[in-house]
Amino acid sequence: MYGILTVALSLNLLIGARLFFSSAQAAEKDSAYPSLQLFSVVMERVRKDYVDGQKLTYQDLVYGALKGMLNTLDPHSEFMEPEKYKELQSDTQGTFGGLGIVIAMKDGYITVVAPMEDTPGFRAGILSGDRILKIDDRNTDKLGLPEAVKTLRGEPGTEVTITTFRPSSNQMHDYKLTRSMINIDMVKDINGKKEFPLGQNKIGYVRLVQFGEKTSDDLETAIKKLRAQGMQAMILDLRWNPGGLLDQAVDVCEKFLPRGELVVTTEGRNPAQNSTKRAMGHGDELHNLPLVVLVNQGSASASEIVAGCLQDLKRAIVLGEKTFGKGSVQSILPLNDGSALRLTTAKYYTPSHKVIHEEGITPDIVVPMSDDEEHDIILQRVPGGLESLEEKDRERVAGARDIQLERAQDLLKGINLFAQRAPLPDQRVAKGEKVAAAK
Question: In the annotation, is 275 catalytic?
């Protein structure tokens, strides 16, 4: 009996020891120290044996390694040298010179998320989904996203040539563009202005171009103007809106939701990155009037947060085409030497916990538009766009139909007609009580 027990204990100790050493070896394989030792050996070998090694500094090699490390993670993470970090800080504080196109890395290509309205890229007819193959005859397949952004930007008045490929039509396009200062009104009416006239059937229309610092305040002004005219339904147009500030997306949702409603959550590996954003405004400023949200492939980031929230909570009908699918959170982490990391630390989730990143928002009602139709609608919106065309093209563009907008208008007209003819439940109860009292 004791012999059997001794053998069993010995066997358990042997198995436990093997498991311990196996896990220790696995941990050692993923240990930082051997990897850092390997890194230092390679760095010294490069300094010693590389043909132009005398031109390299340790900082050059470390910066290069950090760029490579961050670029292997995802298209949105990057290491920023001090100069690049200063550029980022300047961009968030004011305007900059460029083409007005928002780009991202998608399927291995530098891809246009959306052209910003009233900018050189927008006026030239660049569309969401276009792949940028060349910038000034330089192939972009060897450029990272940060380098592409830096190359496209520049002093206002300078020129840049880009070559694009449009997957939907298999066509290449060359554009010679002049950079300008990018400074746009974020909220516009159907005529591209800030007057907000009420449309037929008392349907209001507001277009959010981007989510900047004053988008929410400007939207509130627009809603007040439309309600003063007797608005009975509203269209919120988020097409070609590349996104912007998260807090503004939350503030926009607040305009249409009761206080306390969940808007969006962020979730990451670090619990500090987890957050819950709720509507903290004064309640639904439309007082539950019917609402349609228009989206397309150019709707990204903050636009997708708004569309996904209002769709999940049944506050709006989302109509158009599937959105871009950019729903990750990039945190800026400054470093001691003035450089910084832009690191993807979390993802956005709609109130029903649908992930936005690489999935996008699928509309309740899908209404597709061709590239040519979108291009003509964009030209209609651009100040001076019609005047810049030849007569035959001008006539075509002037008569182009925005079928997504028309479908939204028809839908809201039908909802309002039904509401007028079918009394609400409380109205029917009141009516029945009067009949009973008369009997």
Answer: no
